[in-house]
Every structure is written in structure tokens, then in C-alpha cells.
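Recall the central idea of this unit: under ordinary conditions, the amino acid sequence of a chain determines the structure it adopts. In this exercise we apply that idea directly, starting from the sequence alone.
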Amino acid sequence: MTNLTDVEIQEDTATLPAQSDETESIKWFDNDPQVEELYSINEYEITTSANDFNIKTLYDFIKSGAINIPGFQRNYVWDIKRASKLIESIIIGLPIPQIFLYQESRNKFLVIDGQQRLMSLYYFIEQRFPKDGKRAVLRQIFEEHGKIPDVILGDDNYFTKFNLQLPSTLPNQPNKLNKINYATLDEYKISFDLRAIRNIIIKQNFPEEDDSCIYEIFNRLNSGGINLKPQEIRTSLYYSNFYNMLYRLNSLPDWRRIIGVEEPDLNMKDIETLLRGFAMLIEREQYQSSMVKFLNSFSKNCKKLNDEQIHYLEKLFHSFLESCSILPDKAFYRKTTNKFNISIFEAVFVAQCASSFEARGLVERKIDPGKLEELKSDLEFVEAIQSQTTSKQNVSKRLEKATSILFS
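Accordingly, the structure predicted from this sequence is:
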């Protein structure tokens, strides 16, 4: 199998100016800290490498986990007719768009642009096409295993056969490629396997301490001109067992009751809210008024957590939910907006869990509903959740007031 790092390549080094994009408001919460802050890195130094890999090699890369199809973009959404048109274009020699990969480490790459095309090729060679209702589950399986295990590929509950579905080119003249599959390509198989696709591999050289340029690259290449939300990108960049734990917590009925929405947020704002709570609990002393950079750094650090540490944090959050059991619905909502307030949750979560976390224990004391209402009415606290919510001063003020009022 060809090694990505073994290919001789021409490298171009360039600088990419950074640009701030505001996150669109989402209805269930009333403050988005990333709207209020500027992500202030002025420029990046990146290295780009152009590589032509044939389709069989790309398939091998995906199969081995060298190329990871991350979950930050969206599920695989193409239907079999659209995927079939891509395969037909390759067979008849039409050009297809290049693919962008981000070099995470040696022989580990994230797909920046081209997920749908790559997965269509992968599924065609496997002769399996994913069922609509199983695609979210398959994405999670892919992230956990770095590939789709053969036992899942062979399961008809997840997949159906991938035979090309192509329309006739002329009336009463069937398309000769219709209904064929990878095994029946016959004379087209060798040329299909060896068809080269241009891949642009991107590596960030500066700044060295983060992977933040990928935000700008994703937003510029993302089809349709819709900017990806920070958490959608962060989830893939820093995917870990800690994030698996966040997904489990995000599905808990008691947590869904707290935020007041039954289904997970499409842009992962609920996951980001959980992440922010843990980040403030564990690394609040390192916070320096950029929520995006803070959460990126914390997510990266969490890749080093072992199973025992993650298990403890999961139990701690369960004990926090239990401490909220006597609170009314919408306890973390602001009355003026009737929406969940992230800053209120963050302050209460940290205040409630801090002493237990320091002692490696669990939360035992329930939150007094009256004390929580007192906190939400405190003038200094209200001021700290209304504007500049990501400033270090306001973050500290909220935590200070939450601790003093909830435990007075």
C-alpha cells in the first residue's frame, strides 16, 4: 500500500490571512460567546502539497484509517443516484473536483473537502450503500473505529447493495453502465482502479501551538458558502474518548430536560455547552478571554485523559444532574428571553462541582431553587451574562457570584 509520506511532492508555502465569522444564532439558547469575541491570529503559514492518488490507493487509505472521514461536516447525504453519477463520470473519463486533506500527523489525515466523493468511492468498491436511517450511526461507528468494520458492512440492517442507478442517455437507449457494480465492471475495472484524483494536502507550520488554520480552510471550502460552526470542526480535530463521553452525556434525558430541547443540536451547540462546563471546571485558571482558543486547547488536552479519568468525569456529571433534580424546568433559562443561558449553566456547574472535583468526589448537595433564582436576579451576575460574556473579568465574576450565593 502506498504511504502518503513516501510520495515525492512539490511543496508550496503560503500565508493565509485569518478572518472572523460570526456564528448564526440558534433558537434554544440566548448567548453565543463566539459572536462576541474576535479570533485574533493575523496570518498562518501553511504548506500545500499536490498528490495524484489513484482510486484503489485512496480506498486503501480509507480502509486502513490513514484518511479519516470526520464527523464535523455532516453525515453522508448523497443518494445512490448522485453517487452513481460520480462513478459514471470516472468510468467515462470526465474530470472530478480535487480533494483537500489536512495533515494531522504522520500518515493521519482529515478530509477537509471531498467527504461525499471519497465515501461514494469507498462504498462502491465495497459494493454496499448506506441506508438513510442508519447514516448517523454509521458516522459514529466510523469515528470510533477509524473505518467501518466488515461485520457492519455485511449487515443488511445498515446497508443495501450498491448497483449503479443511472438514467438512459437517449429515449429507448438504456445506459450500458446501469445496474452494474464494482464486481461487474469487467473491462472498466483496471482503468477505474487506476484513475488518478488530485489531492491537496495541507499542513499548518505557524502558529505551532494549535491547528486553528483549519477553521479558515473549512469555512472557505465548505460547499454552499455556509460557515461551519466551531464545535463541528473541533469535534473532528480533537476527537477522543472524552468526546465519546460527551456524546453519551448529551443523550441523557435529565440533560435534555435542563436545556429544554429533546433532539441533539445539528451544529453541536449542546456538546459545546458540556465541553465549556468541563473546561471551566478543570482549566479555568488558564482562561484568557478567547473562548474558541480555550475550548480548542482544552479539547486537545483531553485527548490525553485515560479511561479512569474520563469515567470519573462522567460520574461527576451524573451526580450534578442528580443535584438538579428538584429544580423546575427551564431553571437555567433567562426570564427576559425564555431561552437557555450558557453562562448561567457554566457558572452553576462549576460552583456546584468545584469542591467535589478537587476532592475527586461526587456532588451530594442539591441545588436550592430559591438560591438559583436569587443568583439569576443578582445585578452583578446579570451584568456579567449580558455583554462581553467571554471576557476573563466577567467569567470570574459569574463564578464568584454563583459560589457565594448558591452556598450562602
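The chain has a mean pLDDT of 85.
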